[in-house]
Write a structure and sequence with these properties.
- With 419 residues, the chain is of the alpha/beta class.
- The chain is built from 15 helices and 5 strands.
- Strands 2-1-3-4-5 form a 5-stranded mixed beta sheet, sandwiched between helices.
Length: 419
């Protein structure tokens, strides 16, 4: 046990630290507005700069892209127009992804400005080359014509440029302006999503405690245990909602659906744990608790986004109750339940399997076959306890054999036995 404990601690630390250290976009769904050359340039720039980081979705206009963000089809979108770049984002979907899209938009604008400057310089060079190779009029030297043209324009404007670029009189291209639009804004009381993400771990631990208490209530019938899990999960979810929204303001929209999402999450964790205890005894508590706490929580992506985690971690996390529950609560609290059907199915599956184990697996639960202390009387050293009948011994007449005479038997009984 002493040797295994450091290994368990190391694995637990690894489960939490490894996904956090590998946060990066992987097939992150983002939209691109329009099919112009500038939009195609954005796609090519992102694809070459970060291969495999983004999953591009094309939309005909900004309104379609905004609708896709609200329906959780994409985390954001880039809309490119001449001289400007609009970044559509959603801090409610993930503050971390919103910051990533802001930084990406700034980089794209810088690249577009640099590309425009290079194109302008190329045009200027081509114009100079064409003027240098042009034949001079009336046999005069080319440098005389250019010198005369330069002196004609030298007095117009400050430094002889008149808003032009110094020596050749070319106009500088304006830098590309970046504009950010937060389509679905996170609550002002929880701007970084800290309340939402930090509440998942204690909620998971409390769900396991609920399962342990209900599963070890041996006097309760299986049906009563299952009903108790449902009722307690709903009550615990109400308490979580009152704290997270009523006090901290982190779950601002659709209170009934958000409360139901919290209740279903707690029920999925507690019913699964109670079902494991019912099936295999107290030995089922450890593996189930480790699965929910040390795998389900760090793999959930609640602190960033599932698409920012390694692919295998993301897939595992969204199939476990903590990950599915975090995504469902985010969807009900901010997105009117859009994109939540899969998460509801995952939580419902875990809940049904756990409740079925509680209902029909109680016959294999070892503690259920043990006598409950205080229910039966125990025999003392001199015989059966008071109020209980002594076992009847068969007589010699009934079994046809002579019973041995025990020491301490009454004298009349010994005489009758010897007769």
């Amino acid at each position: 046990m002493a040797v295994a404990l450091p290994l368990v601690i190391s694995v637990a630390v690894l489960a939490y630290a490894w996904p956090a250290a590998r946060v990066a976009p992987r097939d992150l769904p983002v939209g691109i507005v329009g099919t112009s050359a500038a939009s195609q340039g954005v796609v090519e720039g992102l694809a070459h700069g970060r291969p495999g980081a983004f999953d591009f979705r094309l939309y005909p206009d900004v309104a379609s892209a905004r609708t896709a963000v609200r329906e959780r089809d994409v985390y954001g979108a880039f809309a490119v127009t001449p001289g400007s770049l609009t970044v559509l984002e959603s801090t409610a979907a993930s503050p971390t992804v919103a910051q990533l899209l802001d930084a990406t938009g700034t980089q794209l604008a810088a690249r577009a400005s640099a590309a425009a400057a290079r194109a302008a310089a190329a045009r200027e060079g081509a114009a100079r080359d064409s003027s240098a190779h042009a034949k001079p009029a009336h046999g005069k030297a080319p440098h005389a014509e250019s010198a005369r043209a330069g002196s004609a324009s030298g007095g117009s404007g400050k430094d002889g440029k008149d808003g032009k670029d110094g020596k050749d009189g070319a106009e500088k291209p304006a830098p590309v302006e970046v504009r950010t639009v937060d389509v679905v804004r996170i609550s002002a009381d929880d701007p970084r999503g800290a309340v939402f993400s930090s509440s998942l771990l204690p909620m998971t631990i409390c769900s396991i405690v609920i399962a342990l208490v209900v599963a070890l209530a041996l006097r309760l019938r299986p049906v009563v245990r299952a009903l108790t899990l449902v009722v307690v999960s709903a009550a615990a979810a109400l308490g979580v909602y009152l704290v997270a929204q009523g006090w901290l303001g982190a779950l601002p929209h659709d209170p009934l659906a958000t409360w139901a999402a919290l209740a279903l999450t707690i029920l999925a964790i507690s019913a699964t744990t109670a079902g494991m205890i019912t099936l295999v005894g107290s030995g089922g508590l450890g593996p189930c608790a480790a699965l929910m706490v040390f795998v389900g929580n760090p793999f959930s992506g609640s602190t960033s986004a599932p698409e920012l985690l390694p692919t295998a971690v993301r897939e595992i996390g969204q199939w476990l109750p903590p990950g599915a529950g975090a995504s469902l609560v985010r969807g009900t609290a901010y997105f009117d339940g859009n994109g939540s059907a899969g998460h509801v199915a995952v939580l419902a599956l875990w809940s049904v399997l756990g409740l079925a184990a509680v209902l029909f697996g109680h016959h294999t639960y070892p503690l259920a076959r043990r006598p409950v202390p205080g229910e039966g009387a125990t025999a003392g050293p001199d015989g059966p306890a008071a109020g209980t009948a002594a076992p009847r011994q068969p007589s010699s007449a009934e079994d046809g054999s002579s019973a041995p005479v025990r020491a301490g038997t009454h004298a009349h009984a010994r005489h009758a036995a010897g007769a």
